[in-house]
Design a protein that fits this description.
alpha/beta; Alpha/beta hydrolase; hydrolase activity; AB_hydrolase_1
Length: 293
């Protein structure tokens, strides 16, 4: 059963971008969900359905993913560009501000937006990412994103997904792996599963970066007044406990929860994650008007 509506919008450079829309169109508050590097709007379905009674929600496919246009310039696959795309969505919706929920790369985009366009962000939920990332986890992600090989069948797609991510989700059942794989792949006209993202998103991962470029602490320090909830997978190899401690020191008001027996990144459908998000969204500070005047 499809519980969402299709929503299309246009980026500042003319790409046709896609989002799933949940909840009532006249809801007073709007949430924008931003997925991880290789992921798309489908990942947020359980969370969106959970929240749809009280919020209007847009779960986006970033450019180069899902139903959104692929970019002919791979150098545009960058958090700064994605942040501009979210602003384009806000402008098309005639919204001054929204609550952001970002997983991994989506969390980085949320930090960029909160630091560079603070008036457009009411609050943020950051899922398993911080201003710095463990090199071990980055190398793991780079290994499977930069060396993606085609598969011939759904059983092969499921097996490959499980091989890459079994340590991140040790409690997954076969049905869990099936659903996760169906969110990562889509069928082509021959019924064969193909990755639901542009392989060129790997270009940025293959480009050497300076320490200054990979250090997001200056941006994080600019959002000290933002209502923020941070989630971490207990087994995460991307967001370390040391990084969390430093974030808490920089932002004492930040709420934090660790999701047990889960790596990078929590699905946000876990009972503890849903309870933490519900509690965070009940903050009276998140009730300020969002419409452009």
């Amino acid at each position: 059963m499809q519980n969402h509506r299709d929503y299309w919008y246009t980026s500042s450079d003319g790409l046709r971008l896609y989002a799933r829309q949940y909840g009532p169109s006249d809801a007073e508050r709007t949430i924008i969900c931003i997925p991880g590097l290789t992921r798309n709007s489908a990942d947020f379905a359980p969370l969106c359905e959970h929240l749809a009674g009280d919020f209007r929600i847009f779960a986006v496919d970033l450019r180069g993913r899902g139903n959104s246009d692929y970019d002919s310039k791979p150098e545009n696959y960058h958090p700064g560009t994605y942040a501009l795309d979210i602003i384009a969505l806000l402008d098309q919706l005639d919204l001054n501000t929204a609550i952001l929920i970002g997983t991994s790369l989506g969390g980085l985009v949320s930090i960029v937006l909160a630091a560079t366009a603070a008036d457009r962000v009411t609050a943020a939920v950051i899922n398993d990412i911080g201003p710095e990332a463990n090199q071990t986890g980055l190398e793991r992600i780079k290994a499977y994103v930069c060396n993606a090989k085609p598969v011939e069948s759904w059983p092969e797609a499921i097996a490959k997904t499980k091989l890459s991510l079994s340590q991140e989700y040790p409690e997954f059942s076969y049905d869990d792996w099936l659903q996760f794989s169906k969110n990562l792949y889509r069928e082509n006209s021959q019924g064969k599963p193909i990755l639901a993202y542009d392989p060129e998103i790997a270009v940025l991962l293959q480009t050497p970066s300076t320490p200054e470029a990979s250090d997001l602490w200056p941006l994080f320090n600019h959002i000290s007044d933002l209502p923020l909830l941070l989630l971490r997978g207990e087994l995460s190899d991307i967001l370390s406990r040391e990084c969390v401690t430093k974030m808490q020191q920089q932002m004492p008001t930040m709420q934090f929860i660790e999701i047990p027996n889960c790596g990078h990144a929590p699905l946000l459908s876990e009972a503890s994650a849903l309870a933490a998000i519900d509690h965070f969204l009940s903050d009276p500070r998140l009730a300020r008007p969002q419409k452009l005047s």
